Amino acid sequence: MRLEYDPPGYRKDAFNCPNCGVWAHQSWQEIRAAAGAMTFDWRRFQVSACQRCGLLALWRSYGGENRTDSDGSTYGTPVEWRLVYPLASPVPLPNEDMSESVARLYTEARGVFAVSERAAAALLRLALERLTVELGDDVGPLHQRIDRLVANRGLPVIVQQTLDAVRVIGNNAVHAGEIQMEEMPGAAQALFGALNFIVERLVTQEKQMRGIIAGLPESERNKITG
Q1: pTM of the shown model
Q2: How far from each other are the two terminal CA atoms of the chain, in whole angstroms?
């Protein structure tokens, strides 16, 4: 089954076109030029063509440089292909049950993602902090709020890990830490899905369950404790 929103991705056969917005198959082409015809490294660029609207999207590769570690050893940075034109966000829309204030931060992060993944990750971390306040906890640093949220609601480990992923990567987007954004291709993009997952688990599913309980006969609802 196709996802409701399938973000553009390098060399994917099909995705939601950044030009027309419709899910469609894509064809890929390398940019070729005669020797000496261009002054930049054209091998770093490729184009995808939408089979529905016919418009092109431009992709550029980043990374692949050799670096020297503190002990003198060399290593190559990962190669990541990014959509550079049009500046459409390759990430999904916010969960429809996301509150207005949290969705505003999410949408701002979505708007800057194409030009700064670091800024997007920092904004998503702020959105998570805002979400914890709306869920009733505004005391102490975010990691303590997450611990209490998990304990009080009996959340599974996967939810705690997702919460911590948004917190840790968002922190490192602002402050230098052990995680370097440049060395984690796709990390910032994954945070959008993570925040939507968190809202789905903590807001949408609980709303659905309240609706189920509200639909029971009153005589049966009275038998339910809590």
Answers
A1: 0.62
A2: 38
